[in-house]
Amino acid sequence: MTRPISPPEADQNGHDVERLAGGAAVQLAGKMIGRAAALGVHLLLTRALGPQDYGLYALGWTVFTLLGLLATLGMEHAVVRFASPLESEDVTGRRAVVRRSMAVTAVSSATMAVALYLAAPGVAAGVFSKPALEPALRVFAVGVFFAALLRVGAAASRVSQRMAISTLTEDFIQPVTHLSLAIGVILAEGELRGAAAAGVVSFALAALGVELFLRRLYPADTADTVDTVDTVDTVDTARRPAPTHHPTPLPSWRLLLAFSLPASMTGILGLLSMIIDRLLVGGLRPAEEMGYYNAASQISFFFVVVLTAFNAIFAPMIADLYHRGEHRRLADIYRVGTKWGLYLTAPLFLTSVLTPGVILTGLFGTPYVAGGPALAWLATGQMINVATGAVGFLLIMSGQQNRWLLLAAGALTANTLLNLWWIPRFGIVGAAAATALVTAALFLTGLVIVRRSIRLWPWDGRLWKGAAAALVAVGAILLAQRWGTPAGPLGAFAILALVHGAFALTLALLTWLRPDEEDRHVVRLARRRLRKTTIPR
Fold first, then answer.
1. pLDDT, tens digit, for every residue of 399-420?
2. 208 Cβ partners below 8 Å, 6+ apart?
3. How far apart are CA 134 and CA 115, in angstroms?
4. Domains of the chain: which residue ranges?
5. How far apart are CA 490 and CA 497, in angstroms?
6. 468 has pLDDT over 60
7. Where does residue 259 rank: exposed (0-12), middle (13-18), buried (19+ CB within 10 A)?
8. Among the ranges 292-306, 321-335, 370-384, 484-498, which has the highest mean pLDDT value?
9. What is the four-CA torsion angle of 472, 478, 484, 487, rounded to 10 degrees?
10. Separation in Å, CA 347 to CA 113, 307, 375, 466, 469
11. What is the pTM of this model?
């Protein structure tokens, strides 16, 4: 049973749900569009390049993704941590934090881009035993700079809890541009290098866009210089006139890096734990098997998309509410966000586990049916990730980033050892099973720590409606299997539509019969926010 709340608490919770629902709705809509465009890129490339060249592209893209995160040095977390607690009217303080974070990112990402470009021959031939990978790695090296700036810039825009900028740049401009350029590459009969260049150009355009929007969100003022904002640990009061107001302390370089580097390592280790399977499949198995495995991974990424949509707005709310000691409000939005994340991903999870071959064959072509068992394992691991909610953000924003770092390091070690053991024996199925088991262990352990340290829990009795809807969806799948489904893309879309429809209709009926208070807020306010979202001028 849920705890009854007083009218003042109800007003606060309603406001929190409004912020969560409105922001998550914008993020989710944008990320679904972006994920659909990204999936379109992979659909084109799987058929145009073939399993072998697509496997090389996927391997290069995986290296690029890892370095793009590593190059930020965790500044996407630092800018949220130090700018979110500032008052929204304090544009000068927020702009100073953003500017300092972006400067660190620019230097680190440029350094890493040059390093990858120079090391590309050795990485391709020496690490992965695939010399044909070198041209793609050198193209992707250029993209590391833009990917890091985009990541930190988008996080800086979300400090205001206005989601339009990050949604437009990360989830629309970049993937839609990538899809458009990929179509051009295919029509021009381009090869692996051209496919990689399409991705790099899309990140460059998106990074330019986020920089322009940040200038509008945190505009420069004639008095807005670093000297007008005190720096924590470096303020020299003897050389400055007494201010007429209390300036906002600007975190020093040391303080920014002291927070960002451990947070960066947790993100890097978490990502490595999720992609080490692809790196090891690329190094230990033929390129075509990497192609099959990456196709399966594209479907499992949809779970991350939903979780990321909620976390994007949840992260600054965590920092703000935890800083203010509002633990009850924090607990409520944690449960609401987790519940809706489960509702949105349950149908895809059921189809990925019960009919993986139908999905992969219909979307990517007959050869990719070999990735079906891997998809079932990957979907299971990611579903557990969604079910635990924003565990990583809760630990990081509550000052437990070092503890999360140790967990992520242990998960990476375990995943690497399991993959090295199981890939030679079981191929891509072994890689997927190892990744799923370690992912589940990581987030369930994090959930236990969250429960013990800050007394938060993501589930309550309100999830019964989702469980009932899932049972109905399973029945729909079993009936479809008995009656038979069409071959090819039509069969994939038919089974997806059937399961999502059965789940959504059942959930809607149960919600109508017995709605929760936040359900009314989420539906009404998400719709309102989508209509009113604008880019700040």
1. 787 888 888 888 889 999 999 9
2. none
3. 14
4. 14-232+250-532
5. 10
6. yes
7. buried
8. 370-384
9. 80
10. 40, 15, 14, 10, 9
11. 0.73
